[in-house]
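Structural prep section.
Before we set up the soaks we want a predicted structure of the protein with NAP in place, mainly to decide which crystallisation condition to try first. Input record follows.
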Amino acid sequence: MTTELEVGLYIFILAGFLGYHVITRVPPLLHTPLMSATNAIAGISLIGSLVVAGANYGPFSTMLGFIAVACSSTNVVGGFLITDRMLKMFKTSEDQAAQRRPLNLKALIVLTVLVVGLLVLMYSNRELRQNGFDFFRDVLSAEVLKYSYIVSAVLFILGLKGLSSPKYARRGMFAAELGMLMAVVGTLFHHEIVTYRWIVLGLMIGSIVGGTMGLRIPMTAVPQRTALSHSLGALAACLVGVAEYFRHQGELGAVVMIPLGFQVVVGGLTFTGSLMAAAKLQGLLPGHPITYRGQNIFNLSLLAVIVGSLIYLVITPTAGIFFYVMVALAFVFGLLLVIPIGAADMPVIIALLNSYGGLADACMGFVLMNKIQIITGSLDGTSGFLLSLLMCRAMNRSAFNVLFGAFGKVQKEGMDRPEEAKGAVRSISPEEVTVLLECMRSVIIVPGYGMAVAQAQHGVAELAKLLMKRGINVKFAIHPVAGRMPGHMNVLLAEANVPYDQLFTMEQINPYFPEADLALVVGANDVTNPAAKNDKTSPLYGMPILEVDRARSVIVLKRSMRPGFAGVDNELYYDPKCMLLFGDAKESLNQLFAALKS
Ligand code: NAP
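Run finished without errors. Recording the tokens verbatim:
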């Protein structure tokens, strides 16, 4: 057992390093698809769930296994579908002209139908079930499992590697989908599975829910979908852990009890924390941070109780009451962890919860001694951790500050300054904008969160096309944390058929601003605030920004003088060369478009 543990640890660490190298090569353009892809791959907790649901471990375990199968398969199907939906939107101007047909979606549907068909056939035909099952179980199962998992691991890594370029991303994801299929089919022949009833039902529910989510959810709601699927994956890991503990009635050695404890605690807190994040992002709960006196001390004390219970359980594993109280406290801790975090910091917390989810999966792999789960858990954990670090760096914040700083709380300093001290704000009408555009040769469009809120991406794309037809050079400037998710703007613009070769990263575009006749800011605020460069007292100070203030003129589309996510007043609006086109971005663009056409 100890040797197995050692091997597991080696695999965990090496997969983490490999994941680091593969994931750092994923460009910011594809960071949103990366999140949903790792989410789908982390749905590998499905294989542990399949065994618990199908083995003869008793009704309680079977029920938990069934719920876990439904949750994990929702993630697998939904995650791959939405990743594919996103990836097929990323086209260059050449691709758009060639009008390539989507391949992966069809392939995924065919593969899903194949698995479900195989299961239904096995379950409905007694003879086939008996003979086929016996044959595979007795003769092939161990070999099938071993090799299918090895091939799956390779395919997952190739899948993530594909994300290093939009050109190969869909092919990569197809490899990952194939890897998942092999792992699932291989597991169906696991020697402990004796019934497929709950497995089939769980897979059907998961496919329907995940399929609907993957195909129907609008691109603007991707952040909350991602949070929701993290919560489902984590719930699956937690439930499988509880089922394992219940099955053995706590008769477990320390080697199993330690990862099992982590599995249920991390799974539990990730479940409720991610649910909370999804509810905040969806607007079901207030997005601002909720803070109270002694909050950090209370949270840390609760964490200390959880850790204390875990240590006690390692020494006395049969103390069942401690186990179940520990799980309940982990659920509560997840909620308390996310309550003080403002909606602006939610993406960081989502990525962090993603990495916790990966950790829970890896722990499940240690408990079940399943190496593929250790590998994917490690990959998922690394990806989430790296993305949260990248976001923190792009915001010039520390992870500690995000977790305990309640940053999303509206800052009062800038807003309390008297109006006259800030200077005058100039507003502009759509008709006046069209007159200005007549004499422009180069325009840089800067999309931000407001574009997502207004769903104005199609309007932006149409406007860009029209300007280009008139011989104006149009570029898009994408800040790494514009919107509410890394790469959020890239996905929205890709959805509106903007070729990705027109999208420029912050580093690429900043040198072009001084040459641009106009910076057209559509619903972006914090990422353009010059205070980040000039004002040492600003909470944004040090955050790299898009230097729109260096363009010859600036027009900002927004509804009011309200601040952006950081709650900080934007100096840009008082710059004499800046004009504000007030109104909903979509409506303003429609008016602008109509005025330009007429
Ligand atoms: P922002 O600072 O949140 O500003 C959004 C702007 O859009 C606001 O000024 C708002 O003004 C305007 N707006 C909202 N709805 C609109 C509508 N329907 N029509 C027109 N305008 C509308 O957005 P951002 O510049 O994209 O910056 C992103 C923020 O999120 C940063 O603070 C960043 O640090 C944070 N964040 C992002 C990520 C990420 O991964 N993307 C991660 C962590 C944190 P009105 O209300 O006046 O219209």
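Observations: Residues 407-415 have pLDDT under 50 and may be disordered.
Flagged for discussion at group meeting.
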